[in-house]
Amino acid sequence: MKVAGICFSGSGLKLEDRIQKKLIDASVFNDLSAEWFYRGKFAEDETGLSRRLEGSVRDWTADHFNCCDVLIFIGACGIAVRAIAPFVRDKRHDPAVIVMDEMGRFCIPILSGHVGGANEFAAELADILGGIPVITTATDIHNKFAVDVYAKKNNLTMSSATYAKEVSAAVISGEPVGFYTNFPVEGDLPEGLVWSEKLEQALEDNGERPGGISLGIYISPSYNRAYFDHTLWLIPRCLSVGIACRKGTGAREIEQFIRDTLNRFSLYEEAIRSVAAAEAYRDEPGIVEFCRRNRFPLHVFSGEQLKKEGNSADSLCERIAILDGGGGLMITERSEDGIACAVALTDWKVVF
Questions:
Q1: How far is Cα 311 from Cα 49, in angstroms, rounded to an integer?
Q2: pLDDT tens digit string along 92-128?
Q3: What's the pTM value of the predicted model, to 2 decimals?
Q4: How far, in Å, CA of 59 to CA of 131, rounded?
């Protein structure tokens, strides 16, 4: 996690030093790096922690908005709002932005409260400073299920920001939101979500949804069937792709082949958790580059490991995918132009 903060007074400068020391001591913030700035003519603090900003606050914001996970403004909310306004895009890309008063009494998330984690960071920061988090998002103040928070915590991709808003609005207003998944479910369904084990059978029998629920959440790597008129897919990273290719095959060709394979079987690309290959492909440039571009971990298996797997599948790619995923085969091996792949499900479950 990368954090950048800026202040505008001597008191703010002291708070930056205090925050940094608290962040170092707080175990809740893992792998955190922070850099601090001040704008003004007061002297630099004794530790040399903060750097004086020579340019404008707008320029500072431009430099840090897209490369940091959290921006902290120690000062008036208006300063922060005007600074970030030209750069705000959407909740999937914007960093968490938090405003604090220079005494550290209030931590106010003003951007990306859920998806960007501003609410959670503000709450943790207020806790270690002895301050008060000022949370204004509706699902939080009403203590209701927030689908975007749930998706972020469980590394799920949401298929539609619009439907996510509809789900939140429905939960807050007390309207039922459908829920369905083929994965095992651990824990109690959150208040406001309605589970129906008979949903799939009802759709197959007469095409109608039990209870007339038209808005719902479907946790699945597949978009083969929309169980609701307005279906919000939460896509888990639960697919392992076993791959092999002819020597010298390019990353673009591999990427297109994988994309076409998943599309043919109505599977989301966002559901890929990892790519797996035999030892011979450990340094194959096309496979390595494909994984690097898409930030997929590449898991390599030795001949000995594959022998232990036995003949549980008909092909090498299938055995590798199953060995890596730990679940059942989703797509049997297909090959084309010197590239082959198979896809297996990982051992995954829904947890509330």
A1: 60
A2: 788 899 999 999 899 999 888 777 788 888 888 888 8
A3: 0.71
A4: 29
